[in-house]
Write a structure and sequence with these properties.
The relative contact order is 0.06. With 349 residues, the protein is an alpha+beta fold. The N and C termini lie far apart (95 Å). The chain is elongated, with a radius of gyration of 36 Å. It has 4 domains: 52 residues, no CATH class; 66 residues, no CATH class; 51 residues, no CATH class; 148 residues, no CATH class. The strands form 4 sheets. The protein has a 3-stranded antiparallel beta sheet with strand order 1-2-3. A 3-stranded antiparallel beta sheet has the order 4-5-6.
C-alpha cells in the first residue's frame, strides 16, 4: 500500500506519460483531474481520475492510434493468411476473429464474398470453388450415365457428360422416331420418355387421348393457381405495382400475368418431360413438388405480373382471350384505357 499521493507526485507521473496536469490540488483518487496530452494538444483538455490513470488509462486519442496500429498489424497478418488460400482481402477494418471480412477469390474476381477470420481458419473459403470441387467429386462418369439410360430402354445419343443440368439427347426404343432431351437430374428423379408417359395414362383419360387435349392442363392450372407456392411472386409483383392498379391508381383485386399463365404451365411440363394428367391425383407428391418449383422458376424468368382492378382484368381477357397473352397486348390495352380516361376527364372539363 503506497502512501497518500500529493499533487506534485501526481504531476511527475503525468509528465512521464507526456501529459501536462492542469490541477493544483488533489483530494482523492476519484477526483476528475484535468490534463492535456502533449502529443494531442489540438484536441484540448481531457479529464481522468487518478484511479483510472494508475491502472493504465489515459489519452483517448493515443488509445485510438494504438488500436489502429494493432489493427494494421492484424490486417497485414490476416491478408497474408488469406492470400495463402487464394483469397484477396478487401476489408480495412478488423476487431476480432468474428468480424466479417470482405474478400475476393483469385479464381472468381467478379464476386465479393464475406466470412469471419474464425470461419476461414476452420477451413471455409470461396464458396464457388467449394461448389466446383463438390461438383467434380460428384460428377458421374459417362459410362455410368449411359448404362442407366440403357436400363430404362433408352439409347443415349449425346457422347459426353458434363453435369446433371446438361441437356442430354436420347431415343426411347419404343418411340425410336423421336429424339428427346432431358437433364440427368430430371432423369434420376424418374422423368423420361414423354410418349411412354402418355401411354401410361391413356386409360385414365377415357378417350381424351390426344396429347394436345387441354383438359388435364386446365385441371392443373386450377390447382397451381390456388396453391401457395406463388405467394412470394404475387407479393413481389404487388410491390412493383406499388400495391395499386397500374391503370387507375386505385385498389387492385387481381395480379395479371403479362406472360400467359397457361403457357408457363405448358412449358413447366415440357421442361420436366411430364405428361398431361386428367386428375391432379395422377401425379405423385414428388412430381407435384417438381412442377411447383419449375413453375415458380419460370414465373420469375418471365418477370413480375401487374396489379389490376377486377373489372379491368375481366375486360382484358374478354378482348384478348385467355392463353398466349403477351406483355405487348397489355401495353396496348393499358394505352387504350388511359386514353379513354383522359378523354372522359376532358369532356367533364
Amino acid at each position: 500500500m503506497t502512501k497518500r499521493n500529493n499533487i506534485e507526485d501526481i504531476k511527475i507521473e503525468f509528465t512521464k506519460r507526456n501529459y501536462a496536469l492542469l490541477d493544483n490540488e488533489y483530494k482523492n483518487n476519484s477526483q476528475k483531474l484535468k490534463y492535456i496530452c502533449l502529443k494531442h494538444e489540438d484536441n484540448g483538455i481531457q479529464s481522468i481520475s487518478y484511479r483510472s490513470f494508475s491502472r493504465g488509462s489515459g489519452c483517448k486519442y493515443c488509445g485510438k492510434e494504438s488500436m489502429a496500429n494493432k489493427q494494421r498489424l492484424n490486417l497485414k497478418y490476416i491478408e497474408n493468411e488469406l492470400y495463402k488460400k487464394d483469397l484477396i482481402l478487401l476489408s480495412d477494418f478488423y476487431v476480432d476473429a468474428h468480424t466479417l471480412l470482405k474478400f475476393k477469390c483469385i479464381h472468381h474476381l467478379d464476386i465479393i464474398q464475406e466470412l469471419s477470420y474464425n470461419t476461414i481458419q476452420q477451413g471455409r473459403g470461396c464458396k464457388w470453388c467449394s461448389r466446383e470441387n463438390l461438383s467434380k467429386q460428384r460428377r458421374l462418369s459417362y459410362d455410368f450415365v449411359h448404362n442407366n439410360f440403357k436400363k430404362r430402354g433408352y439409347e443415349l445419343i449425346t457422347d459426353n457428360y458434363v453435369n446433371s443440368n446438361q441437356k442430354l439427347q436420347y431415343i426411347c426404343k419404343k418411340h425410336s422416331n423421336e429424339i428427346q432431351e432431358i437433364t440427368y437430374d430430371s432423369f434420376s428423379r424418374g422423368s423420361g420418355c414423354r410418349f411412354c408417359g402418355y401411354e401410361k395414362i391413356k386409360d385414365k383419360q377415357k378417350g381424351n387421348k390426344s396429347r394436345f387435349w387441354k383438359g388435364g392442363i386446365t385441371s392443373l392450372n386450377i390447382y397451381l393457381r390456388k396453391s401457395s407456392f406463388l405467394n412470394q411472386w404475387k407479393i413481389d409483383s404487388a410491390k412493383l405495382s406499388d400495391f395499386k392498379c397500374v391503370i387507375t391508381g386505385n385498389k387492385f383485386e387481381a395480379i395479371h400475368h403479362l406472360y400467359s399463365f397457361s403457357n408457363i404451365v405448358s412449358e413447366t411440363l415440357n421442361n420436366l418431360n411430364y405428361p398431361i394428367c386428367v386428375n391432379i391425383g395422377d401425379y405423385s407428391d414428388k412430381e407435384l413438388r417438381n412442377i411447383e418449383e419449375e413453375c415458380l422458376r419460370l414465373h420469375y424468368k418471365y418477370g413480375m405480373g401487374v396489379c389490376l382492378s377486377k373489372d379491368l382484368h375481366i375486360e382484358f381477357h374478354k378482348l384478348y382471350g385467355k392463353g398466349n397473352n403477351t406483355p405487348e397486348q397489355f401495353e396496348e390495352f393499358k394505352k387504350m384505357k388511359l386514353n379513354e380516361y383522359n378523354n372522359k376527364e376532358g369532356i367533364v372539363a
